[in-house]
Amino acid sequence: MTIPYVGTLAWIETLNLTISEDWQAWFVDGQVAGYATLYSSGEAYLTYATVKGGGHTAPEYKPKECFAMIDRWFAYYYL
Predict the structure, then answer these.
(1) Residue 66 lies inside a defined structural domain of this protein
(2) How many domains is the chain built from?
(3) Which of 8, 38, 55, 59 can bridge 66 by disulfide, Cβ–Cβ 3.0-4.6 Å?
(4) Is position 1 within any domain?
(5) Mean pLDDT (the chain, rounded)
(6) At 5, phi and psi to the nearest 5?
(7) How many Å apart are CA 25 and CA 64, to the nearest integer?
(8) What is the pLDDT of residues 3-15, one digit of tens each?
(9) pLDDT digits (tens, 9 = 90+) for 28-68
(10) Domain span holding position 27
C-alpha cells in the first residue's frame, strides 16, 4: 500500500452510508485498473475508487486508468 486509505475509509464511515456494492474490480482494456465500492443513502450515492499501482500521483504513473476513471465519472457510467 503506497498511500494509506484508512483515513478516507474512516471518514466515509462517519457519513453513515450503506454499502450498496462492496469492493469490485474495475477494468481498462481487459486489465484490472483498480477497485471501487458503492455507498448509498436514499437517493444519494458515493463511489470510492482506487487506481491499482497509482501511487501518490496516480495520473503520472497510471494516466490511462485515471483518464478512464474520470471519463466514466463525467459520463455517469459506473466503474
Answers:
(1) yes
(2) 1
(3) 59
(4) no
(5) 90
(6) -115, 10
(7) 16
(8) 667 888 888 999 9
(9) 999 999 999 999 998 888 999 999 998 888 999 999 999 99
(10) 6-74
